[in-house]
């Protein structure tokens, strides 16, 4: 098998793995296995799926530094776009199942649940990143591309705030995601980032 074919298979495998949860949840809703509130079931699961996608995307740079495996870098754009896809479907589930497409309800909803505005801000940020993740934008933006895409860090913060604000009772799950986010962000701190390649050397020689 040629190297190109191997990477193509890897990317297709990642695509199918990212699509699988959506197929699974839709199947559960279709077969009445999604509990008494299937719309809410979809909304919450897809929201969490979006957070997972963003965390996975942000893990790829430290993983590449640690392993030097090209495969991680090859799926960065794809997972970034999956984050946007999940976030958009989360908004769609909200519009369909919570608002029932009754846009007049939106005003009172925003007063009652202001965390929705925080989610919306995060989604706008994800759209900006998705729209500039192609080669043409990379070339046009040049040196500004990297700082722009570091917007993903405050976006992660907004999503955690949106999640925290929306959850009123059990904060255990939120704490797990916040801890994972803090660990992933810590790998970007210069003293930690510098040590990652050295850690790799140590792991190889151990
Ligand atoms: C367009 C803007 C958005 C709207 C209208 C929206 C709406 C909502 C609503 C209504 C909830 C349910 C809160 C509850 O009652 O427990 C929720 C939860 C959540 N949303 Fe969003 N959201 C938006 C953007 C986002 C984005 C961009 C993400 C991440 C990619 C996200 C991730 C989450 C997560 C992780 C939860 C908590 C799920 C859980 O409790 O299991 N949301 N959102």
From TrEMBL:
The chain crosses the membrane at residues 43-67, 79-101, 113-131, 151-168, 174-193. It is a multi-pass membrane protein. The keyword Hydrolase does not apply. It is found in: Cell membrane; Membrane. Binds 1 heme b (iron(II)-protoporphyrin IX) group per subunit. Its cofactor is heme b; FMN. InterPro entries: Fe3_Rdtase_TM_dom, MsrQ-like. Keywords: Cell membrane, Electron transport, Flavoprotein, FMN, Heme, Iron, Membrane, Metal-binding, Transmembrane, Transmembrane helix, Transport. Residues 52-158 form the Ferric oxidoreductase domain. Belongs to the MsrQ family. Heterodimer of a catalytic subunit (MsrP) and a heme-binding subunit (MsrQ). PANTHER family: PROTEIN-METHIONINE-SULFOXIDE REDUCTASE HEME-BINDING SUBUNIT MSRQ. Part of the MsrPQ system that repairs oxidized periplasmic proteins containing methionine sulfoxide residues (Met-O), using respiratory chain electrons. Thus protects these proteins from oxidative-stress damage caused by reactive species of oxygen and chlorine generated by the host defense mechanisms. MsrPQ is essential for the maintenance of envelope integrity under bleach stress, rescuing a wide series of structurally unrelated periplasmic proteins from methionine oxidation. This is Protein-methionine-sulfoxide reductase heme-binding subunit MsrQ. The lineage of its organism: Bacteria, Pseudomonadati, Pseudomonadota, Gammaproteobacteria, Oceanospirillales.
């Amino acid at each position: 098998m040629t190297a190109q074919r191997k990477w193509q298979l890897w990317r297709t495998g990642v695509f199918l793995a990212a699509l699988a949860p959506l197929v699974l949840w839709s199947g559960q809703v279709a077969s009445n296995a999604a509990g008494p509130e299937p719309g809410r079931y979809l909304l919450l699961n897809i929201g969490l799926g979006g957070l997972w996608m963003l965390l996975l995307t942000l893990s790829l740079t430290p993983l590449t530094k640690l392993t030097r495996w090209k495969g991680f870098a090859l799926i960065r754009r794809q997972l970034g776009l999956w984050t946007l896809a999940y976030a958009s479907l989360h908004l769609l589930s909200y519009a369909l199942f919570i608002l029932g497409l009754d846009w007049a309800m939106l005003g009172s909803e925003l007063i009652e649940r202001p965390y929705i505005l925080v989610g919306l801000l995060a989604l706008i940020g994800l759209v900006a990143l998705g729209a500039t993740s192609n080669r043409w934008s990379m070339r046009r933006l040049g040196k500004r591309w990297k700082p722009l895409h570091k917007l993903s860090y405050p976006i992660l913060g907004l999503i955690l705030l949106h999640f925290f604000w929306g959850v009123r009772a059990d904060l255990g799950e939120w704490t797990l995601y916040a801890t994972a986010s803090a660990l992933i962000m810590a790998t970007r701190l210069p003293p930690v980032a510098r040590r990652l390649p050295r850690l790799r050397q140590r792991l190889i020689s151990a």
